[in-house]
Amino acid sequence: MRTVLAVLLIAFSYVSLADVQGVRLWHAPDSSRLVFDLNTGADHKIFPLSSPNRLVIDIDNSKMLDSLKNLDLDVGPVKKMRWAMRDHKDLRIVLDLREAVDAKSFPLSPNKQYGHRLVVDLVPKSDSFKPLEITQPVIDATQAESMKRDIIVAIDAGHGGEDPGAIGHGGIYEKRVVLAIAKKLEALLKKEKGFTPKLIRTGDYYIGLRERTQKARKSNADLFISIHADAFSSHRASGSSVFALSQRGATSEAARWLADKENSSDLIGGVGGVSLDDKEDLLAGVLLDLSMTASLSVSLDLGQMVLNSMGGVAKLHKRRVEQAGFAVLKSPDIPSLLIETGFLSNPGEARKLKTSSYQSQMAAAIHKGIKRYFMQFPPPGTYLASIKNKSDRIREYVIAPGDTLSVIAQRHSVSMSTLKQLNGLKNSIIRVGQVIKVPAS
Ligand SMILES: [Zn+2]
Questions:
Q1: Ligand 1 centroid to residue 165 C-alpha, Å
Q2: pTM (global) more than 0.85
Q3: Which of 93, 174, 213, 385 could form an S-S bond across to 378 if both were Cys, CB 3.0 to 4.6 Å?
């Protein structure tokens, strides 16, 4: 009996010890995140020390089992990481810092991917920001047209960092596939006159769902697109889908399932226990309803064009835009879409989604859909709107002797490039008697 008790006591003291089994470090452009894997929940505290800048992390009843050798300390605020035991039972970790940081820490409870975690976010203090470069552009009349604003497309690659998203056949990670597609879409839109793409996530780190929409708002996005490649409970599920927000019921079983899964992303990636629904209820007024209805109808129309275009490269899961309560789509004033490029749980689609060529085709299809919509319905004040207004009011002009394209452009207060675009001209060569289209002034 005594031996059994002794064994139990030893076992118990092991369980109560919050061993640090692993340490990971993720770098975002403006912050870094340290994640400690613990075998059980533990009390902790953090505090900064200055000259030199350090951050101390104390974890009660803990010991370090990780070698700390796999951390990338070449970039980010952490220069060095060391640890020591205090009173033979508590763990003290000291971060030697390159600069002062604002630090925030919070525990995360276990989920499917991970066990107990302690997260420490490090944000370099703002005084280390570089001063803004101030340039005063000189504008002349012919430039005025190109001064019309671009349509801003916020491209959000789902998941990242701690949150791999779906893991498909052959160990393929959703977070990598969707970042590759997002970057290809960004490159295509960058080349397109009248568009400015804005990548929400640029590398392998996690961003909270609400922060993603906030980043889109900060960049004055006209459109928010979240790219995914999820897994479904059935291996047979396949095809691409486009989702818009539904505040009530989801339009299909898969939509509901995926929305639940995506919305729990913050529990894996970690946003410090912020509830996803904290503000929605407070804001659920008439005003919000109005702008939401407007942006939702844009989302549905635009989504349908993207979906049709994707039908050229992929099998479609559903022919219509589906609706579900994805947290990432809840911007009241920015049309927002969530695109499932395919199912990583389907072996055939996983194989395709892994290849760069298929990722390119997917990006091209999304690009085509976005462009088609905005050519038809450009937001007021944009370059595309100015082109469309002109092409909406067109008359014909017969080239007279002595005319040059630049003189005609000037006379109709339009730029050479618009005139060429309007007429499909590759150069400025015109001949007497030729009929060209000009904007009616
Ligand atoms: Zn996803």
A1: 5
A2: no
A3: 385
